[in-house]
Amino acid sequence: MFDTRATSLALPVPRVDAMDPNAGFLAGLMASAPAELITALHTVPAPSLETRLRELRARLELRELDSAARALTTLEGEHADDWRVVWYRGVTSLVTGDHETAALSFDAVYDAFPGEMAPKLALGICAEVLGQLDNAAEYYRLVWATDPGFVSAAFGLARVQIAAGERAGAVSTLESVPEASIHYTAARVAAVRARLRERSHREPLLADLTAAGVQVTALAAFGLDPVRHEQLSTEVLGKALDWVLSGSAGVPGPAGPAAGSPDARKLLGAELNERGLRFGLERSYRMLARLAQRGDERIELVERANRFRPRTWV
């Protein structure tokens, strides 16, 4: 299950009204941490709608939900018809778990601005948390097809595709994130995991294992940091080991049209058999141990490497 709170707070923030008396002041606080922002906002001689909305958001970011709810109630009493207040009602409701109210709020914003992508994205999140996967997929797909800048729509679409059993579609969606995007690496990592996670090792996994291995290698060349690279490698190699130990489902026999045993293949530099995969896992866990920041973590990773090490005579 995805993090509803984080996803909600990652929704686009409405632009500050340039006519607001504190617009210039707020422009200088864009990079401030939430607690610092609240302190700064309390120095404003005459709080305005925009400063109060920004404080409301900061309270949500700090998990001060009661304070945020009180601030929202006050704003609704004074500016009930302002679309920005309605938008933040939706965000607050999503964060606090009132998904029905969130959907109604974002639907009202969508009615007011039918051409905007942000309310469609928000409605996709609402549909997803409400279990309306078809509706969620429709919203996410529309946003992603219209504006590839909304990469969260691609991640959302992939989530609901996996939930609906459309694993290949989820992989395709994640791999459609362009290389120029700052989220490219995260999308490719997610695509690797979408291929293999929550799959039985008795399924015919060879094609997905091979594709995952190619992608992990490519990510290393693209600049994936060593820790995440080795962690991802252990996921792929671990799934491959389970698959091999279960009989390598889907691999044709010697007489088949695509004859050849898994032993003849390699995955992330490891031979695709029990011994080779154990060596591969041992190597990755030892590398993670060398990269570990804490002593206890290092010891645990070395012990894990030792558990995977194949038995030898020497």
Automatic annotation (TrEMBL):
The name under which this protein is listed is Tetratricopeptide repeat protein
- Source domain of life is Bacteria
The record places domain Protein kinase G tetratricopeptide repeat containing at 4-312
SUPFAM superfamilies in the cross-refs: TPR-like
Q: Which InterPro entries match?
A: PknG_TPR, TPR-like_helical_dom_sf
Q: Which organism is it from?
A: Streptomyces anulatus (Streptomyces chrysomallus)
